[in-house]
Design a protein that fits this description.
It contains 23 helices and 24 strands. The chain is of the alpha+beta class and 652 residues long. A hairpin with a 5-residue loop joins strand 13 and strand 14. Helix 3 packs across helix 5 and helix 13 packs across helix 19.
Length: 652
């Protein structure tokens, strides 16, 4: 990244939905193995901190919005001086802690962070300190190409904040995962994070009770019972934050992923009752919480909600409710804000839009299969399928998509070939030919006719690159995610789940644009687009991308694009495009800008999809996924021969 390049950043606050206090309680397992692991359900919120950042000689923060402390801070990029500033406390101590950690463990220079907007309240139990720590860690990561994944960002933010007088809990930095629920498991010093897919929209309202609480006293009193319980009251605290909490959070994960909002709301009320009975007696002065309980009992609120509970350390700080629907959410927000005088916020956890559409560009000539492509387009070249039938590649792709649950397929075609495609997909087989088929083949023809009903066409009138071709389907894609397949690649899954369905499931979990990849030898990287990044999951199937290179040299790939950890021998892997993508509206917006620029300048350069992917990767993030299966290329004679010989084999 160039030294003068600015990047935009956003970091959200966080809301603990279930499992408050279980982070530090679970850490006590390091000293007492009988303590149960902690588990919390946490989500980022829609409010946060907005900033721009760029490289500089010193570590500088310019705060234009908060109104707390000095408007700016500057320090030499020195581990000792930054650590000293962190220990001194104050508004900028958190970011100094992160910067000192970066100085100590990474070879980085300075940065300047300019905070230009903030709608996240401070000192409200929503972890504004964690948000700014995450934001600064992201700035270092992007500006100095550190290849950190989300968990790495989260951990650096945590250890940076630990260098300040204000000790945070491990769950605070869950805001690094954005506005999406995650389960955090705390086992001694180990922390694991599991993403929770959202099945149906969940409409929350949370509000500052405007009553105040002493968090320091709450934590001090509750910590008396750890790591070893010395009386019955402390044993009940261990139960509540241990096995009882594991049961509640397990059910919460189930209800979120199955879309059972009413049960989830009832569970909030159950969790609050459990906390009041078993934990609150440890600190009755703060956890009797009269304002919180009066608000939870309010009959007007109960009419609008499925349930509610306290937030964070509990007490009369912040309350959260799960509203019955979007209209109830708005009414609750208005009531809390206008009639109760509380500072309130809305939070909607939305499911990632299901992928129901696919795009397949087929307007190319197929130069590498010439002269066969004088008579047959490459997507109609025959291949023996796994069922033993000889099929054109295009039908193998359609069957793959139908099995994955895709409802509409758009072919991007050359206008001159429109008649051919319409005849193929729209024109019934001549009756005499149909009658000559066996019963098995008649059933396949009927199946084909059903699949053909899902097919749509879009014309590409000019050949201006692969990105330009994909952009022609922008209206078909709409605002939702869309699958993109290549017309010369087919897939064979090693499981009962099609490769494209595996990719869709990864998108459901992470909600970001994603490309399927597979390993290729270093000697072959110059034939592919190569993707590199940091692993996001324990299984090492999902990468957070930080580099994309189109047909790099083997030397460049060896220096910059190797991915570690895929194999036990410690050697690097090189990951190439598998032939399947899930694109989002951000990518189509970037393609639109590129096409406009190309047209305005009358450039002869092609509009490449890779450039659009790289822009979105840098601005909002993109993932790569390794399916459990294999892709078969039809793009050249050697590849076609291998596909024809191997694809349909039972043991291929």
């Amino acid at each position: 990244m160039s030294n003068d390049q600015k990047i935009k950043l956003f970091a959200s606050g966080r809301l603990c939905l279930f499992g408050e206090h279980s982070d530090w309680a679970g850490q006590a397992r390091a000293m007492n193995s009988e303590v149960e692991p902690g588990r919390a359900i946490v989500t980022g919120i829609e409010q946060g901190i907005y900033a721009e950042a760029y490289r500089s000689e010193r570590f500088c923060v310019i705060d234009k919005v908060s109104g707390i402390g000095e408007n700016s801070f500057s320090c030499e990029m020195s581990r000792e001086k930054l650590k000293e500033a962190a220990k001194a406390g104050g508004y900028y101590s958190y970011v100094c802690g992160v910067a000192s950690y970066m100085c100590e463990w990474y070879r980085v220079g300075g940065i300047t962070v300019e905070i230009y907007d903030q709608d996240l309240p401070v000192q409200s139990g929503l972890s504004s300190s964690a948000a700014v720590c995450v934001l600064v860690a992201r700035a270092f990561n992007q500006l100095y190409d550190l290849h950190l994944n989300t968990e790495g960002i989260m951990n650096i933010a945590y250890w940076g904040e630990q260098r300040t007088p204000s000790r945070c809990g491990r769950l605070d930095q869950a805001c690094a995962y954005g506005v999406a629920p995650v389960a955090m498991i705390f086992d001694g010093h180990d922390v694991e994070v599991e993403r929770i897919p959202v099945r149906e929209p969940l409409y929350y309202v949370f509000a500052d009770l405007m009553a105040g609480k002493d968090t320091v006293k709450i934590l001090a009193d509750l910590n008396r019972g750890y790591p070893f319980a010395s009386n019955e009251m402390e044993e009940r605290e261990h139960e509540a934050l241990g096995k009882d909490n594991l049961d509640i959070t397990a059910r919460a994960m189930e209800y979120i992923s199955s879309g059972e909002a009413e049960k989830l709301g009832a569970l909030m009320t159950e969790a609050q009752t459990l906390f009041d009975e078993k934990v609150a007696p440890m600190c009755p002065q703060e956890l009797t919480s009269p304002v919180l309980h009066e608000t939870l009992r309010d009959p007007r609120i109960k009419e609008l909600t499925y349930g509610g509970k306290g937030v964070g350390s509990q007490g009369d700080g912040t309350v959260q409710f799960l509203a019955k629907d979007e209209a109830a959410q708005q009414r609750l927000y208005d009531y809390l804000t206008n009639e109760k005088g509380m500072t309130s916020y809305k939070l909607t956890l939305k499911p990632n839009s299901a992928v129901k559409k696919a795009i397949i560009p087929v307007a190319g000539f197929g130069t590498r299969l010439y002269p066969a492509t004088r008579g047959v387009k490459k997507e109609f070249c025959p291949v023996v399928d796994k069922d033993g039938l000889l099929k054109p590649v295009i039908l193998i792709l359609l069957e793959e998509l139908a099995e994955a649950g895709i409802e509409e397929v758009c072919f991007i075609i050359n206008p001159e070939e429109r008649r051919f495609y319409e005849d193929f997909f729209r024109k019934p087989l001549a009756l005499e030919h149909y009658e000559s088929l066996t019963e098995e083949m008649k059933q396949y023809e009927d199946r084909f006719r059903k699949m053909a009903e899902s097919v749509r066409f879009v014309m590409q009138t000019e050949q201006k690159g692969f990105g330009h071709a994909v952009y022609q389907a922008r209206e078909f894609a709409g605002d939702g995610p869309v699958m993109l397949l290549l017309d010369d690649t087919i897939y064979r899954s090693s499981t009962d789940t099609p490769c494209t369905k595996q990719l869709m499931q990864a998108f459901d979990t992470y909600g970001k644009p994603i490309v399927a990849v597979h390993e290729v030898p270093l000697s072959d990287v110059s034939n592919y687009g190569i993707f590199a990044g940091a692993w996001e999951d324990q299984e090492r199937t999902v990468l957070s991308l930080d580099r994309i290179a189109e047909k790099p040299t083997s030397q460049y790939a060896e220096d910059y694009l190797g991915v570690g950890g895929l194999r036990d021998n410690g050697s690097k892997a090189y990951l190439a495009a598998f032939g399947a993508y899930i694109l989002t509206k951000e990518i189509f917006s970037e393609l639109a800008a590129m096409c406009r620029e190309n047209e305005d300048s009358r450039s002869k350069d092609e509009v490449e999809l890779t450039a659009a992917l790289e822009h979105v990767m840098k601005s909002s993030g993109m993932l790569a996924f390794i399916p459990d299966g294999e892709s078969y290329d039809m793009g050249n004679v050697r590849a076609y021969r291998r596909t024809f010989e191997d694809f349909g084999k039972a043991d291929a």
